[in-house]
Design brief:
The protein has helices at residues 3-20, 27-49, 51-64, 66-81. The protein is an all-alpha fold.
């Protein structure tokens, strides 16, 4: 196992620990920090291990940070269809 997968594992561990914290105030702040760290880490994992492992890590990260991706997809859909919410 190389360093990129170890870093991805620790990122997932930190994401799960932050998700267990009982604070609702910092949820979006924590998600923004995790996304900001996770995107370059995903690129590093994909560069070192190939696109198939990168896709697995992407799906795992999206399952942990589900709501930011749901809101992003809703925003993109509303801009494409022209629907006002």
């Amino acid at each position: 196992m190389n360093i990129s997968l170890v870093l991805a594992f620790f990122w997932a561990l930190v994401a799960n620990v932050l998700a267990m914290m009982p604070s609702k105030v910092y949820d979006w702040h924590n998600a923004q920090i995790l996304i900001g760290i996770g995107i370059p880490l995903l690129g590093f994992v994909t560069f070192k291990n190939g696109p198939s492992i990168g896709l697995v890590v992407l799906i795992a990260a999206m399952s942990m940070l589900l709501w930011p991706f749901v809101y992003l997809s809703r925003r993109i859909k509303s801009r494409v269809t022209g629907a006002v919410k």
